[in-house]
Amino acid sequence: MSNRATTYKAFNYTKPASLGEIAPIYRADKTLTMDKMEQAALLFAGTSIMHVSADLSEPRPTPMPLIPQEILHNARGELEDILQQLLRGKAKGSDAIPNKLIQLASNHIIEPLCHLLNACLRLTYFPLAWRMATTAIIRKFDKDDYSAANSY
Predict the structure, then answer these.
(1) Measured CA angle at 146 (ends 140, 147), to 5 deg
(2) What is the pLDDT of residue 128?
(3) DSSP string for residues in 84-152
(4) Ranges of the chain whose pLDDT falls below 50
(5) How many other CB atoms are there within 10 angstroms of residue 34's CB atom?
(6) pTM
(7) I need a labelling partner for 1 at 20 to 30 A (CA). Which of 16, 23, 48, 113 fits?
(8) What is the pLDDT, as a whole number, of residue 101?
(9) Please, are residues 83 and 103 in contact by the beta-carbon 8 Å criterion?
(10) How many C-beta neighbours within 10 Å does residue 42 have?
């Protein structure tokens, strides 16, 4: 392989080392900030805030049509598939239970989980904790300018 091809390959297939530092980020007035708290607020506003008119507060129970019984019974097979597809290397959720443990215990917990899921469907209620998520802001690779919030 020629030196030129090797250089090209090395250039294209290596990432710049990251020291975990956030590059300066532009404020709305186009000035840069290095302040970590301000950067965090700008990144959050630029990646996580959606300006939509939606009420995400705890819903009030409202009468809903009953879910057909055959859908409730079929949830077991779907739930088994979901449990087997959990990625083992992912971070734990707020319950601190690793996916690997859930998969290993799936034969023992499938019935209670199925009953719980069916109850949620029947009552049309899902606990607030199930609607929460933790988001990690990660740099997008190969961006020219990391001072823009949409580079994360």
Answers:
(1) 140
(2) 85
(3) HH--TTSPP-TT---HHHHHHTHHHHHHHHHHHHHHHHHHT---GGGG-------PPTT-S-TTSGGG-
(4) none
(5) 11
(6) 0.46
(7) 16
(8) 92
(9) yes
(10) 21
Per-residue burial over 80-112, b = 16 or more CB atoms within 10 Å of its CB, e = otherwise: eeebeeeeeeeeeeeeeebbeebeeebeeeeee
CA gyration radius for the chain? 23
pLDDT of residue 143: 79
Q: Which long-range contacts link 2-11 to residues 24+ away (Cβ below 8 Å)? A: none
Residue type for 90, please? Answer: K
Pick the closest to residue 147 from 13, 15, 17, 38 (CA basis). Answer: 38
Strands (E), the chain: 25-26, 32-33
* Cα 128 from Cα 56, distance rounded (Å): 10
Helix (H) or strand (E) segment spanning residue 8: helix 3-12
Looking at residue 16, its pLDDT comes to 55
Can you give the pLDDT at residue 121? 79
Which region holds residue 114: left if phi is over 0, alpha if psi is between -120 and 50, else beta? alpha
Other CB atoms within 10 Å distance of the CB of residue 143: 13
